[in-house]
Design brief:
It is a single chain. The protein is α+β, with helices and mostly antiparallel strands and 151 residues long. The protein has one domain. The protein contains two helices and eight strands, in the order E-E-H-E-E-E-E-E-E-H. Strand 6 and strand 7 form a beta hairpin. Helix 1 crosses helix 2.
Length: 151
């Protein structure tokens, strides 16, 4: 699979309207981290076509922008407005435990959107990881060599 870099600009509104403490499923968090680690860039873009949203994953957070609205200009540069941000906690006790996460809402009436994002993103991540696995080719079978004793 060919990786290429795209430069995008995103603006964070000055104030968040609401914060919510929640947990995101371990499989979702693990998939996000796997995509990020396998990426050649510092962020991963995940298109959520069914909602016309885009998720941007970096080491500290996942931000969501609406592809149909929320464009701004500042200092001669244009970019999309961040609608929602997920800020997962750093460190955890188990790879299979849900991950504490702060949800930041920058616009009103986005709780339903947040619920949909949570449900829509997991299958997309699974599909992206599967495509990457197929593109990277089959994993070589392990070889077990007999240990020879010194003569």
């Amino acid at each position: 699979m060919v990786d290429y870099l795209i430069r995008e600009t995103f603006f964070r509104p000055d104030e968040a309207l609401a914060y919510e403490q929640t947990r995101i499923p371990a499989a979702l968090y693990n998939g996000l981290q796997l995509l990020l680690r396998r990426s050649t860039g510092s962020a991963v873009f995940i298109p959520i076509r069914s909602m016309q949203y885009q998720a941007v994953v970096d080491r500290e957070e996942v931000v969501f922008v609406d592809s149909h609205g929320g464009y701004a200009y500042q200092d001669g540069e244009g970019g999309r407005l961040i609608r929602i941000a997920w800020r997962p906690a750093v460190g955890r006790d188990s790879l299979s435990a849900p991950v504490p996460c702060e949800i930041v809402y920058y616009f009103r009436d986005l709780r339903e959107t947040q619920t949909r994002l949570l449900g829509e993103i997991q299958p997309i991540i699974t599909q992206m990881l599967e495509r990457r696995r197929i593109a990277d080719g089959p994993i070589a079978a392990p070889r077990i060599l007999p240990l020879r004793r010194p003569a």
